[in-house]
Amino acid sequence: MVGPDTAPQTPQRSGCLGKAGAPLDGFVPVTRASELSPGAMKWVAIDRERVLIANVDGAFYALRDACGHRRAPLSKGTLAGHVIECALHFARFDVRTGKLLSGPAAADVPTYQVRVEGDTVYVKTASG
Question: Is 13 helix (H, G, I), strand (E, B) or coil?
Answer without folding.
Answer: coil
